[in-house]
Amino acid sequence: MSEDITQVEEIVQETNAATITDPVKAAIITDLGPIVDRMSLWKQKAEEIEVKSEDTAIEATALCDAMAEDIKTVKEHEVLSKITTGLHALHKRWVALRKDIVEPIEVTRKELRWRVISWMGAENRRAQEEERRLQAEADDKAEAERRKLLKKVDTVKRDSTKERYEEEAQQVQAPTVQVARPKTGMRVRKTWTVTGFNEEQFFQGLAAKKELRAFVKLDKGSMIRAKANMPMLNVPGVTFKKIVT
Questions:
Q1: Distance between CA atoms of 40 and 137, rounded to whole angstroms?
Q2: What is the pTM of this model?
């Protein structure tokens, strides 16, 4: 049995062992049930309070503190934390296992795929060269045929015959040569990549061409952090607002 299959069986056993037992469920319901029941109460009370005075502000603050206690209880609940930590660890193990299986196959497939694509590229270049050679031969042959017909024009006296030879010469066209390309069934995508970037030239063009703005992603988070560190900072075109939380 391969190491990967053994690892799968181990993780399956750990996953099965992670089943939440009835006593654990009961403990969670006992501890968190009252908080769940209070959820609608908190919302109702918060909607009823109109903060218009010091007393109502104090009342709202006390309600916020009470809700914070419930939030803390849920977040720091020992049993629930162990469950979430364990399930998170299992999730990471399953993801790692999937990666261990998929990545080697992807690497092998990519290497073989590249060999096929490289061969196809070489064959396509060979076909193009052969097309150019055969097309040149066909063009030369057609040109020789035209010259042959035009020479006959000087050897005849009747105008109708001259015209017939001239028309025949004009109609001589070389066929378009096509050399068959390899058909492997391999599907390929053609994409573009950026191999060079001149920042100064780009921003000069950005000022002149509005369509280039689609390529720029503003980092508002960095601007906010910079403003927090340097309150006097001003960025052209950007409006900052101080928010108290």
A1: 87
A2: 0.56
